[in-house]
Description:
Layout: H1 6-9, H2 14-22, H3 26-47, H4 50-67
Helix pairs in contact: 2-3, 3-4
Amino acid sequence: MYAASNSSYTQLSDEKLITLIAMNHQQAYTVLVRRYERLVQSVLSRCLSDQRRSRSDAGYFLRAFRALPHFQGRE
């Protein structure tokens, strides 16, 4: 349905990326992770020890990805 390069995906809103991720678009997931990975790492570095943080970085993205089918777009 939506075949595009990663650069095309970078122009999309978070909401559109999440919709595409829910439809198994790997490029959309890659763009969303790259968009927020520095922010997540920054927050984790303030909250967790280095050892715990290194184990947790990928885990937070994985949990978020698994929760996407339940995402309703509300705050």
